[in-house]
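User: Could you walk me through two proteins back to back? I'd like the raw sequence and the structure tokens for each, with a short line separating them so I can tell where one ends and the next begins.

Assistant: Of course. Protein one, sequence then structure:
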Amino acid sequence: MPGWRHRPLPGRGGAGSRAGGALQRSAGTMAAASPCAEPAARNKPDNTAFTQQRLPAWQPLLSAGTALPLFFCVGLACLALGLGLHFSSDTIRELELDYTGAPGSGHNCSRCANASLAGAGGCTCSLRFELPERFPGPVCLYYQLSNYYQNHRRYGVSRDDRQLSGDASGLSNPATECSPFRTDPQGIPIAPCGAIANSLFNDTFALYHLANGTFYPVPLDNRGISWWTDSNIKFSNPELVNGSLEAAFKGTTKPPNWPHAAYMLDMGNTNNTGFINEDFIVWMRTAALPTFRKLYRRVREGNFSSGLPQGTYRLDITYNYPVLSFQGTKKVIFSTVSWMGGKNPFLGIVYLVFGSACILTGFVMLAVHIRFQKQNQMDVE
């Protein structure tokens, strides 16, 4: 029994010893049969190479002969890649136009900005600008917002992916994360629900080129501006009812800030309306930083398929989206693209810094190795 110690009786050492041995064997048998020993046996891992960690493994012995070439090779590779990214980014041409129209700025869109503060929408303004050089096609047209925190948690989760995938149950019963834009005051479900959809960017742009004293429209292509996985997998309209998308949305209402229902986002193109509208899909992919840009259109059709020629242009803006209430700004950006995408000097700088650090570390390690090489040899001898 645990904790009990046998003491042999005086004058009977042999018998006492035999009795003590029997008692010890009995205690051992009781301990082996005790339930406390069962978990240890049950949890014992199998005697295999994997469970006993006897698998063959490669254990490199780092030395100066292996570490130094590795540092120099990695550093040179990063420098080469960084230079390629940096020079490729420098070849991209960009033109930014701020159309926030803050009060007192004297901007052409100041009148529309003041109207947006008063709650009025539909104001139009124009920007006339010079393109200093030819922009080879395809030219991308972006809109940029600043001081806009789409990464706020309450904002980022305020959506119903089940609803956006065309699930009929999502239309009739939106997710609770969409509150307070889940239902209207009468209890009718909102489609699409949530704060992200309700704050959809709705400024529109029209571009014109001055030639022979006349402004000619520049065609803007809205096809393929969203991610393929979004437009073909994540977003889908509900199943048509009698061939009608409007009937599929019956029993729902539009978000409070929208002028029209979802099935009227692009009435001229049935393949670009409802939840599969590309402007809507682009907006629903939230940005990680408070200053972000999103693709609006591409210039790659008609006489401008090769790009935008140098000259005078006019951009007509339908100013609907208010930003002055949260001290935000709005910009339109014309940009060319390269094999790496849009202009991004940061990535090239990161590779250059990392490659330089690797090479510098390699030289420091080489100097230390040369300095203490003789001392190491003496210690070995």
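----
Protein two, same layout:
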Amino acid sequence: MTSSLITNHGLSSADASGTLRSRGGHFVPVFDSCRRTRRWRFPVAALITDFHLPMRSLEIKNRTSVDDIKSLRLITAIKTPYLPDGRFDLEAYDSLMHMQIINGAEGVIVGGTTGEGHLMSWDEHIMLIGHTVNCFGASVKVIGNTGSNSTREAIHATEQGFAVGMHAALHINPYYGKTSMDGMVAHFDTVLSMGPTIIYNVPSRTGQDIPPLVMQTISQNPNMAGVKECMGNDRIKYYVDKGIVAWSGNDDECHDARWTSGATGVISVVSNLVPGLMYDIMFRGKNHSINSKLMPLIKWLFQEPNPIGLNTALAQLGVIRTIFRLPYVPLPRAKRLEFVKIVEELGRENFVGHRDVQVLDDDDFILVGRY
């Protein structure tokens, strides 16, 4: 039997030492003779079964609704830029955020794979979520990637994320160690209890698919906003037919996902570079012409694991510094030359930033291993 915490405001701190004692296999309160006479009494936790610690009022006063998340069409998995010592470059980050907002992005994933959340400490991660909410939360929905292969860590990070004001959480299935189907359901049910949540299915990274049976089971939770699905448009259509909101997690498939398979929209990497074109694809009906023109860029972007291509491209566009946190390294010079040609063919005006696209030399890049 699982247990969790609920606040008992009827007990004082003086009662705490003897508060929880076992009687017949159950925890019951035991009161000391010394009681405070002041009106305010510090809360003491009492154990009850199958109940989560409720979020405090300060944590939910600006909480968005699940329906608000379900309606988002263009969500950018935002890049995290760095200073030469490896710390966050918040000035460049704010500029990237501004470019997303003015080009129509409705939401951002903070600290996802693209944002390199896996290379952050949790302190950095939560700080960046809070910074994004504080600076841009009135203009765009902030979805914090607080998932983990450890349920304990996922709970802690999600509590902190909602405490600093994020509108929703992004959660992945436990990776590397993996778990059973029942374990997936238990993991997701635990984190879904905290607030609006998008589930992320990307077997190429986790090593384990979230099967439809699991998704349909957890979709009964009122906090589940939907799924970022990377298993293709047939899976997306299946979910849409079952009434489950889905976003395409694949930029190369998102046009057809949106207009043929019924996806609400896309959680996009390429929108970091060409947010206006991605807005057109998501909002202005079928446009096979724009979609076809984007394919060389998308193919180039994902020739190595994300975010290697994106980091290289943004540096070449002059909107971030040429800093990589290891183990990521820039694409080789030949590939950087290819990117210059892609930009020229699509039109520099469609890309973020205002500087001319540069090839950059190998020596221009700084690789940071300790930060």
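Confidence is low (pLDDT under 50) at residues 1-37, 42-61.

Let me know if you want the two compared in more detail.
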